[in-house]
Amino acid sequence: MSNAPVDIEQKKNPPLAGRRTQINAGQRRIDWAVYAGWALLFILALTTFTPFYQRFFIEMMIFAILAMSMDLTLGFTGLLNLSHALFFGFNIYVLAILLTNFEWPLLLAVLAALLLTLLLALIIGYLSSRLHGIQFAMVTLAFVELIYIFVMKWRNMTGGSDGKRIAREAAEFSLGGLQINMSDTLPLLFFVSALFLASYYALRRIVNSAFGNALVAVRENEERAKFLGYNIFRLKLQAFVVSSLFSALAGVGYAFLKMYISPEYVSWTLSGDVLIMTLLGGAGTLVGPIVGAMGLVWFKDWVSSYTEHWMLIVGLLFMLVVTFMPKGVLGWLFRK
């Protein structure tokens, strides 16, 4: 047996591998808590919820995907992207136009809408990712206003301020001889549930990867990250495009949920709502935005049933959380 002295500092500060093991174990517990929470709600949706509350649960999951994907740029990269929800609404508009005006097959229209939305994200990301801080935020906001004006003016395609409806029959497709309509509650519940789980799993893998560590390095100190050899522009652009993809995927689910799109879904106010959801739950955690999104969707519905001034109450709630829980609800719950 070795009689080598024990380093007291080593006891206080366990080796890095040991700390990583503890972090990974804690992360796995959080992940399983997310999956268990979803499973409970999903079982209740199938066995107990009325169709109204099933669709309400679907809406909560859609906004959770939106908030999680914003967290990739805001919480992990440190980018205030005010165009985040633009890709959500833009994807719905493209999908609605392809299905309604051009009568494309459903699956082909979904794929084409996603590709066009990714192209828009690549353009906006390329033009904005060399900027920092408030400059980045203002440029993304300018693109939102540009697309909003375009939607309002191109009435024969977008419907202008009246919005655009998607015909129910346009959401149908055949699978093994079985006709499925994605606007029906049950198929949509399974689709959005799969989308939610896949999004959480994929985003968790991304933020836990070397790429995710590089994004955190950019968030903490761009100059230091550049000195260490990171390509800051490329990292920002990649984070921007990846988060936009998940925003667009959430838009696919929302298109089938509402079968309607209006200009408010490409306005900066929706990005503001998603920003509030992310900050309420706790940015930089992935789980916090889920809590913030689902909680705020439920809170808005509950408060609006009692008063028409619900936006004021939501604003006050946000101010209280930011003041007394600067790291969000999740950060407050797990504070040391």
UniProtKB/TrEMBL annotation:
Subcellular localization(s) per the UniProt record: Cell membrane
Residues spanning the membrane: 32-49, 56-76, 82-99, 106-127, 133-151, 185-203, 237-257, 278-298, 310-334
Topology within the bilayer: Multi-pass membrane protein
Pfam families: BPD_transp_2 (PF02653)
Keywords: Cell membrane, Membrane, Transmembrane, Transmembrane helix
InterPro entries, per the entry: ABC_transp_permease, LivM-like
Annotated coiled-coil segments of the chain: none
Predominant place of localization: membrane
Listed GO MF terms: branched-chain amino acid transmembrane transporter activity
GO CC aspect terms: plasma membrane
Protein name: Branched-chain amino acid ABC transporter permease
Species, as recorded: Bacillus thermozeamaize
